[in-house]
């Protein structure tokens, strides 16, 4: 009986951590276990990186660029190449001109880890080519990769490493794809934000308005708390500088 109650309490504790403070096990367990994956940046620097997955969604993606400009913060946009047709051809070049980085998020919104190695490599390369074409006359240096579904394999890491990419996940993921109420999204981000944190939100037709509302609510408050917003490039470069000293 006692063992059963203990198991239930443990399960409740685990679920509570995942729903309320998942940044803790990400930073303390996953990041040390997988140093080749970027979960977060330098914990001694009071900075945050905004990353947006699954775009572009259409008109909402342009609203996102306008809001980021209004808030004066950069972001790394992990785009799905198959979604580029949802918006105008100049979206990628416009985002780059505004100071945002473009990340590689495969060709379709599916679990990348389920692809066999050859299928993964083919889709990975095809996505690189399509994103580069979408940048138009502006040279696009792709460096960051985020797999569909967030799961990765050793073969995947090897494949992207050969092409000079790094796999970036995140440490502040407010479960926005499950459509929680807006107060929860705001509370979650503000409660889980930490120095070196990487925030993950989504630019999908069913999430973009919540993403906009969340950013509008949390960015001014986090700035008031002394956080500075950076791109993934700057965050990782800062971590390397501090580490080498």
Write the layout of secondary structure elements.
Elements lengths: L1 H19 L2 H11 L3 E2 L8 E9 L3 H13 L3 E5 L11 H7 L3 E4 L12 H18 L9 E2 L8 H9 L3 E3 L13 H11 L4 E6 L5 H17 L3 E3 L1 H13 L1
Parallel strand pairs: 1-6, 2-3, 2-7, 2-8, 3-4, 5-6
Provide a short characterization of the protein structure.
The protein has helices spanning 2-20, 23-33, 59-71, 91-97, 117-134, 154-162, 182-192, 208-224, 232-244, and strands at 37-38, 47-55, 75-79, 101-104, 144-145, 166-168, 197-202, 228-230. It is an alpha/beta fold.
Describe the structure.
The structure is a single chain. The protein has helices at residues 2-20, 23-33, 59-71, 91-97, 117-134, 154-162, 182-192, 208-224, 232-244, and strands at residues 37-38, 47-55, 75-79, 101-104, 144-145, 166-168, 197-202, 228-230. It is α/β, with parallel strands linked by helices and 245 residues long. It has one domain: Glycoside hydrolase/deacetylase (TIM Barrel). Strands 2, 3, 4, 7 and 8 form a five-stranded parallel sheet that branches. A three-stranded parallel sheet has the order 1-6-5, with helices on one face. Strand 2 (47-55), helix 3 (59-71) and strand 3 form a beta-alpha-beta unit. It is globular. The N and C termini lie far apart (54 Å). The model is unreliable at 5-17 and 241-245 (pLDDT under 50).
